[in-house]
Amino acid sequence: MIAYIVRRIAYAVPILVGVNLLTFVLFFVVNTPDNIARSQLGDKRVTEEAIQSWKQAHGYDKPLLFNVEAQGSQKFTETVFFDKSVRLFAFDFGRSDSGRDIGHDISQRMWPSLAIAVPTLLLGLLVNISFALTIALFRATYFDLWAVVFCVVLLSVSTLFYIIGGQFLLSKMFHLVPISGYDTGLDATKFLILPVIIGVIGGIGSGTRWYRTIFLEEIGKDYVRTARAKGMSEVRVLFRHVLQNALIPILTGVVVILPLLFMGSLITESFFGIPGLGSYTIDGIQRQDFAIVRSMVFLGSALYILGLLLTDISYTMVDPRVRLS
Questions:
Q1: CA distances (Å), 45 to each of 37, 38, 158, 205, 255, in order?
Q2: What is the C-alpha to C-alpha distance for residues 179 and 158, in angstroms, rounded to an integer?
Q3: Which of 22, 135, 144, 313 has its CA 20 to 30 A from that of 270?
Q4: In the chain, which residues have pLDDT < 50?
Q5: What ranges do the domains of the chain cover?
Q6: Angle between helices 159-166 and 189-219 (to 10 degrees)
Q7: Contacts of residue 67, Cβ cutoff 8 Å, sequence gap at least 6
Q8: Does domain 109-286 have CATH number 1.10.3720.10?
Q9: What is the pLDDT of residue 322?
Q10: pTM, full prediction
């Protein structure tokens, strides 16, 4: 099993290198260091001396990928790519183009993101699994048909509709919760209720349909027919046998998204004014702050690969045959 895990980690290294390099190249196809300097200086008529001074102060005065004038290994080390991107593999995020400590910002903003993501995940699992089990109980009936139609309708609705509709109904009309904002401690709860509710409702369509498919697949297996032949009720078969065996693909699916909870939601945090990592990424894109963008893309890639690695490990615990693949 250790060899299997080491092999999976080895696969992740070139993926991270490729993502890092691709992000770097794509960003500088759109923006040159001179354009970045002009954007940060905020003056269309900024002088060439001011641009060069800003580039030198922020480490953009070197060649991007290859330094022709340098000698030996310095041809690669004396570059913007080496200074700005290679250090990410040590999770040294450095400073943003505006001068802020990115690592400190991440450590502060991760908690609001988790405060939204964790309750949304747990409540979403409870609601989706319960709804999917109910549909499976009444499978091949009109309830099953209209429940699937309802899920498809929910899937067809944009997330923005849920956000704007929720803010209009619960905040503007009934004044039950604040429309946006954030606070620390227990006072943050009133600002998190609406984003969590919208996150759960927005995931019902896709989540329920996926769990319904898993349950229906389990219902058709031999052990379920054997349980019915022994006189078990349909409800007992569902909760004692089907749900227990379906937890394996459900849990492995949850494991892959656990590290990504750290990253927050781009749309939700922006619309609700939550100072999480999602809104931090959006702010970095709007300000054309390459340091923030590359750091968040790298962090998201690393967390996604970690999720896949945890999923592979969970599969090996459930089915030893996976170790041979």
A1: 12, 9, 42, 52, 51
A2: 19
A3: 22
A4: none
A5: 2-90, 109-286
A6: 140
A7: 74, 75, 76, 78, 79
A8: yes
A9: 55
A10: 0.84
